[in-house]
Amino acid sequence: MDVRVLHADITTLQVDAIVNAANNSLLGGGGVDGAIHRAAGPELLAECRTLHGCPTGEAKITRGYALPARHVIHTVGPVWHGGQRNEDTLLAGCYRNSLQLAFDHELESIAFPSISTGVYRFPIERASRIALREVTAFLEAHPQMQVLFACFSEQDRAVYQAALTVSFQD
Ligand code: AR6
Fold this sequence. Notes:
Blueprint: E1 2-7, E2 17-22, H1 31-40, H2 42-49, E3 59-63, E4 71-76, H3 87-104, E5 109-112, H4 124-141, E6 146-151, H5 154-169
Parallel strand pairs: 1-6, 2-4, 2-5, 5-6
Antiparallel strand pairs: 3-4
Helix pairs in contact: 3-4, 4-5
The structure holds ligand AR6.
């Protein structure tokens, strides 16, 4: 199973698709969303305007424009409210729906950021376990896909690496 955890800026990765941790409007924002729009250029926002937003937990695809990645898969993670508002299920949906969209478009490599663990405050250990569970389940059925986690700090990379190790022990 080809899953790798990197300490990297996701906008630099040459993969079939990078995933954007967007908001419901899909019209840009801060964090990784802002970085992706800056690196892709204004055509990305123009295509996003045609998508009419995205519900939390779901995903939509665009081209990558000036990015080294061919496509951007925009997904919307849940805002953390303490865990009683379906946050785990919604976050799992982000990973599952992004992977399914990549598969439907015959893409073979996909890179994820740590969805919801920035401005949306989802606890990162919990989020990383959900992410790795969903990715490993998907790859069992679609072993040709390569999945990268682009962690923005060394600390985050260590958390995802630990979740990866645990997911292979289960
Ligand atoms: N490459 C990889 N990871 C990054 C990068 C990058 N270039 N930049 C930031 N991160 P966040 P969220 C990490 O806040 O919590 C936006 O305004 C960051 O360190 O970007 O899902 C949207 O428009 C953190 O680990 O996303 C939404 O309104 C992770 O990406 C809202 O933020 C996610 O942090 C979404 O919040």
